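Handout for the seminar on molecular recognition.
Each group receives one record of this type.
Step one: identify the two inputs.
Step two: read the structure output and locate the region that could contact iron/sulfur cluster.
Step three: write two sentences on what you found, then compare them with the reference statements printed after the record.
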Amino acid sequence: MTDVRTDDHRPRKRVFIRTYGCQMNVYDSDRMADVLRPLGYGLAASADDADLVVLNTCHIREHASEKVYSELGRLRDAKSERRAAGGDLTIAVAGCVAQAEGEEIVKRQPAVDIVVGPQAYHRLPELLAEAERKAAIGRAGKRLPGAGVLDTDFPADSKFDHLPAPQGIRAGSAFLSIQEGCDKFCTFCVVPYTRGAEYSRPAAAVLAEARQLAAAGAVELTLLGQNVNAYHGEAADAAGAWSLARLVRAIADIAGIARIRYTTSHPRDMDDDLVAAHGSVPQLMPYLHLPVQSGSDRILEAMNRRHGRDLFLRLVDRLRAARPDLALSSDFIVGFPGETDADFDDTMRLVAEVGFAQAYSFKYSRRPGTPGAALDGQVPEAVKSARLAALQALLGQQARAFNESKAGLTVPVLFAETGRKPGQVVGKTPWLQSVHADGPERLIGRIVETRLVTGHANSLTGEIVTRSLEAAA
Ligand code: SAH
Ligand code: SF4
Ligand code: F3S
């Protein structure tokens, strides 16, 4: 069981946080745990032994938000069982569904006590106190199933000004949120509505957090933002304006940080300096997640991506010139309204031309309130499914080919966890592929030279090089 010691003497309670969606939510879930810790909350391993359950939700596709309601149905049943036995269960909905649907959630599932948007997590203690008070009234009157306390404001200041120092280091690796929200308004996407306007944290605060994480043992930092390469810090200083490239170089100077990654970036915001950093900063790992969504100029325009296929292809060339072994990853949407067979062929040709190490692909999902939802030419489900299958087959072949191409190399691997088989550890190559190798648990959190032996569809098998194993011992 993952448990956290509390640092005061109040009665112990337990919180279970279930995280859906992107890495921003993973980071935020850790921060919610940080906020709750001083209230006496340790972490529960499941909802069954929790006093408080937080669902940190994702609104990006219909399927993602519908999952939340089925989970809430199960939690409602658990809550009524608890109440029948004289206890209680507090249910909170956080994240992007909370932001997008607000009190609709309480209407649809009245057992919910708290709805809290991504900008209000520092207010969780107050919301809990209020929910507690309302629930007590509800229990006495046997009326109110949940408390329905709501905070989905976008405050003028940033939540980062209020949150405690982060503690979320997993096996040497930590997320560091540097940017939030998005002003791009792609016509399919809910993020500008759920996360609000683009906001960059001041570089001083980011660097302080990076130093703190390094001092606490982090060797790898992944810089996070919905549009992380739009990062611009605060006002320029004597050394000029802040940018992601400058931030990466500053983080590379922090002792102990051996690996830097960033996600998610937009092709339009890859400036020359950032492209060059891929060639000149050794700590910047040779992996880039660069969503393109479609290979058709017509569809890119309808998506409001503000670039065509050419810009993307030229960008890939520039990146590969800077860092020839760069592994490229991307996101694709098939079946955007109006997508014809010819448009889809353009996407397939772009994929064939670039050669991706890894990629995520989705059927277009019509999201209420986005401009795409109102467009004519919605594509039938069967067409979307066929296109997705064809695209995934090609991307799958490319991922396997990429993995196979690395067999025979000896590379540093950051081990992250034990494998399914006894005596096995699993880690990540510089290109972010998973590697399984026989090795002791004490290698977890360390970077160890590993010979890559065989490439598979989604991972590689490796052998730890004895010399470095002794060095690591
Ligand atoms: N900020 C990132 C991505 C955010 S969402 C970017 O700019 O690319 C992650 C991915 O989900 C997107 O890249 C897109 O491929 C997919 N996605 C977003 N909205 C979607 C929708 N309505 N239907 C299907 N996929 C969607
Ligand atoms: Fe969504 Fe587009 Fe912003 Fe990415 S850039 S978060 S896809 S609106
Ligand atoms: Fe989902 Fe919100 Fe992230 S919609 S993808 S959790 S920003």
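Reference statements: Confidence is low (pLDDT under 50) at residues 1-8. Residues 182, 184-186, 189, 191-192, 226-227, 266 surround iron/sulfur cluster (ligand 2) (CB under 6 Å).
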